[in-house]
Amino acid sequence: MLRSLDALARRRKVLRRACDGLSGPMINRDGLAAFFKAHGIAHATVDHPAVFRVGEGDDFKAAMPGAHTKNLFLKDAKGQIWLISARDCTQIDLKRLPAVIGSGRLSFGSGELLQSVLGVTPGAVTAFALVNDTDRQARFVLDATLWSADVVNFHPLDNTATTALDQASFRRFLTAVGVTPVIVDFAAMTTM
Fold this sequence. Notes:
Elements: H1 2-18, E1 22-23, E2 26-27, H2 29-38, E3 44-47, H3 58-61, E4 67-76, E5 81-87, H4 97-101, E6 106-108, H5 111-118, E7 138-143, H6 144-147, E8 151-154, E9 161-166, H7 167-177, E10 182-185, E11 190-191
């Protein structure tokens, strides 16, 4: 297993060097598109005005099929970083969540930490940023409704577009970056 993780890290470094659109050591939107292509991940991206929070852009989101998302970048009292991706309408109780996912008390991570770990800025937090977390500093929590959605929509590392993936492509992405999500049913506050 350790050999396969080392091989994955080496492949990711080679891919980063081969991709156009690098922003420092982190992959940006163009690099993400190259990553998708290199891994055979089917996707469709729609450009739109910048959106910074859930509820903005509802007019153009209505024309885009699939589950739209909200994404939280958190740090717990133990120092562990968490990325939570949930359906945009999902209620997340941050006071009860630590008992469900095994974390310390949760608070929002700083913009500087977000940039250094995931390579994105506030307002552009996305599950796709896991491509930049090569040291696997963030634990990924995924809403059960997204895990079962036919199509999921996330920002492609910036908030001026939305990228749609079908479920098979989304799971292929997670496999390609070496991440196994913690699936949470936020309504029942249980893991699956």
